[in-house]
């Protein structure tokens, strides 16, 4: 099958290489020094699940590629709207665009541009990044990719995608029964992990050791879950203790991508995370004071980094 990877960074580059190794036609969309390296030297993946190197067509212009069966949208959340506006050359009658971002709004943003019929929801659990131009480093995480039709049906295209993902080494592929549940499940944890490591400027180990900070970590998860349930999303009853147990087992020196972006002067995903929680909460009348606090504390930094 023909895939376009829109945003061939840590997540997209990893997926593209694994799908290419399985025999699929894969095109990479990237920019800057990373694109130049992909074009000259190919893509190398250094992974705890096994290294690989592939030489794939790479461009910054989707019109070079043409319609695909699947577009895997793997940009940062703050780049989704601009990327969605450039998707049209990749879209055929039956093209599925699978959105793999942090947050719960990307699918709606993409649908506003290309129509909901083309959009598939996705969730990625993987620790990977661009180590240097042309090189993606996968350092951990289950490399689990979850996806599903927005209306919950099992369509021929989602089954075909599942077959392709399942047959690719290094991918733990999961076809969701309800992708909204999966999106909000991850969202609840990401908001807590990102929010607390970024606001304290400390790793998760220090957050765990402070009773007050650990309680705020819990409260952030609880607030996001309350918003999801108010919107009709059927999150599991054990969501909070499950994520707390998971967080207790994390490397004490672990931070988050939000903290990295904050401390390196890069655009932050604050609006797609805590800003989104605040907006969704306002729509359904749920109070989210801990998420509001994170948003207020980090907003000036997000503004400064954007400048």
The first-level CATH class of the largest domain is given as Alpha Beta
Please report the total strand number as a whole number: 10
Instruction: Calculate the mean pLDDT score and round it.
Output: 97
Straight-line distance between termini: 41 Å
**Coarse morphology:** globular
Protein name: 2-dehydropantoate 2-reductase
Keywords: Coenzyme A biosynthesis, NADP, Oxidoreductase
EC number: 1.1.1.169
Function: Catalyzes the NAD(P)H-dependent reduction of ketopantoate into pantoic acid.
Give an account of the 3D structure.
The structure is a single chain. The chain is an alpha/beta fold. The protein folds into 2 domains: 2-177, Rossmann fold (3-Layer(aba) Sandwich), CATH 3.40.50.720; 181-306, Orthogonal Bundle (N-(1-d-carboxylethyl)-l-norvaline Dehydrogenase, domain 2), CATH 1.10.1040.10. 47% of the residues lie in helices and 22% in strands. The chain is built from 12 helices and 10 strands. The protein has helices at 10-21, 32-41, 80-84, 106-114, 156-166, 179-200, 204-209, 211-230, 239-248, 257-263, 271-284, 289-306, and strands at residues 2-6, 25-29, 43-47, 52-54, 58-59, 68-73, 91-100, 119-132, 135-149, 172-175. Strands 1, 2, 3, 4, 5, 6, 7, 8, 9 and 10 form a 10-stranded mixed beta sheet that branches. Helix 6 (179-200) runs antiparallel to helix 8, helix 6 (179-200) packs across helix 12 (289-306) and helix 11 packs across helix 12. The chain is globular, with a radius of gyration of 19 Å. 45% of the residues are buried. The mean pLDDT is 97.
